[in-house]
Each structure stands twice: as C-alpha cells, then as structure tokens.
Amino acid sequence: MNEQTFDVRAMLADDAADILAFAAALPPVDLLFLRRDIRVDRVVAAWIEQNERGIIHSLLAFSEGRLVGIAAIVRDVLSWSPHVAEMRILVASDRRGAGLGRKLMQEAFALALADDVEKLIVRLVPEQRGTIALFEEMGFRAEALLRDHVRDAEGTKHDIAILSMDVLRQNGHHLAYGLG
After folding, report:
1. Tens digits of per-residue pLDDT, 116-172?
2. CA of 52: how far to CAs of 14, 44, 49, in Å?
3. Does domain 7-176 sit in CATH 3.40.50.2300?
C-alpha cells in the first residue's frame, strides 16, 4: 500500500458515531482481544466517559475525514498492578500495511511513558501474525497463551496471546538508537 497521511488526535466526546462505524467495519476476529464489544453504543459511551476522566488515554487516526485507526492505553491505578497498562491498537482493514499501526503504537508508547507506565501488555488472537510481528519489532515479547479464552459471536472459542514490554528498558533502547 502506498504511503498515506493520517491525522492522529485525542478522542473527543463527540466521536461515538465514528467509533461505532469503524468497529462495525472491522472483521469480528479483530475485536476478540477487547474485553468489551465496541460495536455497542453503551460500551462506546462508557469508553468515552473513562477517556474524559483520564482512566483511559485514547487516540484516533483519521484519513480523509474517516476514522481508520484507534490506540488506547488502559491502566487501573487502584489495582495491584498500577505500574502496568494495556495497549490496544485497531486499524481499518483497508489501511493496513501503510504504517498506521506502527505510528499508533509509537504514539501510544509515548502516552505510556508520559503516564509513568513501567510495563505494557497487549492481547491478540494468535491468528494476527502480522500484528504480533509488529509488536515484537517494537520490543514486546510473548508472555502467555490463554487457550479457548474468548468466544466469537458464533460461539467458536479462540486463544488469546499476551505479549509484554518493560517500558523503561525499551525506551532506553529507543533512545540509544536515536528512535526516542
């Protein structure tokens, strides 16, 4: 795919319709790693509300006025693991291979650094080999495989792979190689 330009910005309160349209167009397997179904109005409303309160930090990527990618850093500072956050990246099927996923990962990584996150995790279905390879390029490593962990709309069970990254160590590597 040719190089494309994307405008990345923070999620706003009035982005619900764009998010719902974006999620409806994704292949169902792309949504399985999420804890909630973002094709549902009330789920998106709760997400936007948590984003506004600073519980979740979300970025949206637009191209030609259309939402084509989402990144989020989700962290529970009241948990036993307040130093850990989850990175979530979604890219429209027709925009893959154009560098958007990498750009969203870099922007989300910067958000995690600014929020003093020490460890990042991502959840993916193992079938997403290209996405896993991209996360591994960024410094994530396989940590767990949860067998038959989620069910799709048809009731088929799928595994979930969990990758993680030590943010501070990885940021040191990025700075050492001029990528910071």
Report:
1. 999 999 999 998 888 899 999 989 999 999 999 988 878 899 999 999 999 887 766
2. 11, 12, 5
3. no
Amino acid code (one letter) for 20: L
Three-class secondary structure assignment of 39-104: CCHHHHHHHHHHHHCCCEEEEEEEECCEEEEEEEEEECCCCCCCCEEEEEEEECHHHCCCCHHHHH
| Residue whose tokens read 């009241």 | 78
User: 138, 165 in Cβ contact below 8 A?
Assistant: yes
Contact present, 117 and 166 (Cβ < 8 Å):
no
The amino acid at residue 127 is E
Domain coordinates of the chain in residue numbers?
7-176
What is d(CA 36, CA 47) in angstroms, rounded to the nearest whole number?
Answer: 10
Say what the pTM is: 0.87
